[in-house]
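Reminder to self: tokens first, then the designed residues, so the page reads top to bottom the way the pipeline ran.
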């Protein structure tokens, strides 16, 4: 047997095995991704993070793994690292609506309203049926004092999802700020119907009743508001004096991680 046989055999073996490694690693990455999603849905953040890491080790081009790890990082209150992960997911899949939406929400939390607005625009562009993208773009519009835009975006969100209580609420707030009290009342009624423990909606509907001269109904709503959120007692006293609407952004900002856990961790 020629002394060249074994070197040539080994060369052929390794050259032939390399193309096989790629699909094996891709399958391993997909399996790790599925496991990470299971852990995330169960609230096992450390295990989910480790599984997403494993998926990225097997396939660093897996955009969904970057996105999923970003969601975990938001839930771990590591917003800057989450921004980096969402940005990486977007670079890999420039039309990934959910990554633009998630990144935009962090920008909104950080009061980077221009950046948030741009990301929500992209989220809507790549998925025109994403009700939450319209809704949170409406929140960004509110900070830019674009009340007509707030109404338009939340109207679109409601058209997509009639059960979207936050969209009814925020459209009602925009109507209220324009002194359109009958329209505001309709929207707050629907928000409360969809979510009977919606403290902010009771607060704002109570303000509508005040402006309509319905004092007794207003006091009932303020009492309901405090039942579900006692921390708003000082807020109610101030708003009763100024008759201003309870800002939707304040309602949402403190619940960023709750929103991610409820609506992003299951995707």
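Designed residues (267 positions):
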């Amino acid at each position: 047997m020629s002394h060249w046989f074994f070197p040539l055999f080994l060369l052929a073996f390794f050259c032939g095995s390399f193309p096989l490694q790629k699909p094996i690693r891709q399958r391993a990455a997909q399996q790790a991704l599925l496991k990470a999603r299971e852990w995330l849905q169960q609230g096992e953040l450390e295990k989910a993070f480790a599984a997403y890491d494993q998926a990225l080790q097997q396939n660093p081009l897996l955009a969904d793994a970057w996105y999923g790890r970003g969601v975990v990082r938001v839930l771990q209150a590591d917003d800057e690292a989450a921004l980096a992960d969402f940005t990486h997911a977007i670079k890999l899949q420039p039309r990934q609506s959910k990554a633009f939406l998630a990144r935009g929400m962090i920008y909104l939390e950080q009061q980077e309203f221009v950046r948030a607005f741009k990301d929500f625009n992209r989220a809507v562009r790549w998925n025109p049926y994403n009700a939450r993208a319209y809704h949170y773009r409406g929140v960004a519009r509110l900070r830019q004092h674009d009340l007509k835009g707030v109404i338009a975006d939340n109207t679109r969100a409601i058209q997509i999802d009639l059960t979207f209580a936050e969209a009814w609420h925020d459209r009602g707030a925009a109507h209220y700020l324009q002194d359109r009290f009958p329209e505001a009342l309709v929207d707050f009624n629907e928000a409360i119907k969809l979510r009977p423990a919606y403290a902010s909606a009771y607060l704002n509907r109570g303000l509508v009743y005040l402006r309509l001269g319905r004092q007794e109904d207003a006091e009932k709503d303020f009492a309901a508001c405090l039942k579900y959120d006692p921390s708003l007692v000082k807020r109610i006293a101030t708003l009763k004096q100024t008759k201003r609407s309870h800002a939707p952004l304040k309602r949402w900002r403190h619940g960023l991680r709750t929103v991610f856990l409820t609506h992003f961790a299951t995707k």
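The two ends are 60 Å apart (CA to CA).
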